[in-house]
Amino acid sequence: MKSRSSTLQVKVNRGSQADQYFQTFDVPADDNQTVLDVVSWIQQHADPTLSYRFSCRVGMCGSCAMMVNGEPRWTCRTHVKKVVKADRLTIEPLRNLPVIKDLAADMDPFFDKWVAAGGRHHPSSTRADPIAKVDPTDKARVTADASIECINCAVCYAACDTVAGNPDYLGPAALQRVWTLYNDAKDADKFSLLDQVSGMGGCHSCHSMGSCTHYCPNELDPMSAIAGLKRATARSFFKRGD
Questions:
Q1: pTM metric for this prediction
Q2: Tell me, what CATH number does 177's domain have?
């Protein structure tokens, strides 16, 4: 049995997008307690109407992402003792997204920007063709592999100050996806990919502040991916101008 050593004072965002407020709960503090454990305790023991989102609880799906003391985190991976300040926690839904209710953010704008970025594969062959071999040591393949583990948790999107100041900005995850496809030898329309991300709200809107890379729970590097897109779009512009 885990020993309870103290009590946490937890401020939790409540309400919908149009009517948000904080409610404070006193939560027993346990050894090795995660922030998701805290939220679950509140829902199970203090207020069953609290709304939040989670799934796997083991740091794989990313659905439990929330703002913890002002920083975006996977709450199932975040141990209270590492983030608590004076026995206090503030928990909010992910930043830069509309609030459905309490701690549940509306992910639609995040995924809409994936669509707007054009991050879809353009096949270079049909199902009837032999499967083309890809050299795993090829420089482009290594670059693509570096970003392929994105699971769409939107932590980078919530961390991004450019998104906060420019709602049209496509965001780190969508642009990183395009960079992955651009470096995929099997994608047949790289110019189309670059055209989708070179306009207003595209890669050149990024201020290279690096919060996306700093907070990525999977230790990916969206900032470098976006920098790669900036270079590629510039080269493409001058090549097509010849």
A1: 0.91
A2: 1.10.1060.10
